[in-house]
Design goal:
It contains 5 helices and 14 strands. By secondary structure, the protein is of the alpha+beta class. Strand 10 and strand 11 form a beta hairpin. The longest helix has 18 residues.
Length: about 190
């Protein structure tokens, strides 16, 4: 992920430009962050995790989105595009715009060389500000490895990981388990 060379802009300017842009960007505290194009594995993993979650949650109140919904972390400060989001119950829209969600329960990011540091650090710090967020999931593109953080009742975050084809991601807040063998099936270039 790279920061654009453009001068700082307001959230209103960013939102107006992003709604008509031919490419997506994110906005953090006046900085517009250009989103790099992803590899095939990134696209496959985003779609696969989204599909597995959607299938597991199809009879309940939760809705899964993949890549196209903007998340408002803080009005006027931070707007990002998670790879996958799950929200349960009625969606809450930011600033009256139906393309901005404010109440996800789960956010998933597929890691890449260009974004991993940001996804683990600054972006996770932003996500922790979302009151509804219960679980944050990081999916490796290079190995069968999924890490996730669960917000406990006292606000602390607990780290877990699943590795290899027999590994299982247990998203307690959703009551869902995802097998790594299914998530990574037919994903090119991933080692077990």
């Amino acid at each position: 992920m790279s920061v654009s060379a453009a001068p700082r802009v307001t959230a209103e300017e960013y939102l107006a430009a992003d709604r008509v842009a031919s490419f997506r960007s994110e906005f953090v505290n006046g900085e517009v962050l250009a989103m790099a194009g992803g590899r095939l594995a990134h696209a496959q993993l985003s779609a696969r995790v989204g599909r597995e979650l959607d299938h597991a949650l199809e009879d309940g109140p939760c809705i899964v989105t993949v890549a196209d919904m903007r998340l408002q972390v803080a009005a006027g400060e931070t707007y990002v595009y998670p790879d996958v989001m799950v929200f349960c119950g009625e969606p809450e829209y930011g600033e009256g715009h139906r393309e901005i969600i404010t109440n996800p329960s789960v956010v998933v990011e597929v890691l890449s060389e260009a974004t991993e540091r940001w996804d683990r650090g600054g972006k996770f710090a932003q996500y922790r500000r979302v009151a509804s967020l219960r679980e944050y999931v990081l999916v490796s593109q290079d190995a069968m490895r999924v890490e996730w953080f669960t917000r406990e009742g006292d606000g602390a975050w607990t780290y877990r990981e699943a590795v290899g084809p027999e590994g299982v991601v247990r998203l307690e807040g959703l009551g869902v388990s995802l097998g790594l063998g299914r998530i990574y099936r037919k994903v090119a270039g991933v080692t077990g």
